[in-house]
Amino acid sequence: MSAELELLDWRRRVAELYAAVRADDDPARAHDLWRRTRDDLFATHPQSPGPGPLNVAPYDGRWRAEVSLDPADEQELRVETGTDGTVVFDRAGVLPTPWGDLDVWRLRQYAGGLWVPLKDTSPRTYGGGRYLLDTAKGADLGEHGGSLVVDLNFLYAPSCAHDPRWACPLAPPGNVLDRPVEVGELLSS
Length: 189
Description:
Elements: H1 3-23, H2 27-44, E1 55-56, E2 64-67, E3 76-81, E4 85-97, E5 100-107, E6 114-118, E7 130-134, E8 143-144, E9 147-151, E10 185-186
Antiparallel strand pairs: 1-10, 2-9, 3-4, 4-5, 5-6, 6-7, 8-9
Helix pairs in contact: 1-2
């Protein structure tokens, strides 16, 4: 299979995984599926950014909330990457979570997409931050009753945390929490 078709397969499998997660009414069971499927993809798929299994904390329901997407003042974020040049995001709103506000960014370039990175103070998480929402790649936990599902148990490290050949936008100041968030994908022990 060509690298292009392998990448298409990777993206399709990730999108299918998140569809299955959204369809499950038990967040802990959905998290277990997410963890096992990602372990398999990382261990076996040719487009994997790193080896599996991944170090993922056990599910903790205290890190799940359903929150509104509130309006925010317009702001532009320009991210220089080693491979993509300048990636431009526009702030689409703010998620007022129980742990602190998080900016929601809209990718300005082709295909758009919403992106919510998160950086915390834990030494056990990737220093550049992890991703909660990246709709350009199918990573979306859905909505319920007009609110977005924000479940930090599903935080994952971007590809650049696993392999330097990848360039990833990192969490900007409006996406930094002043507390440790030791759920989701953690650094290998």
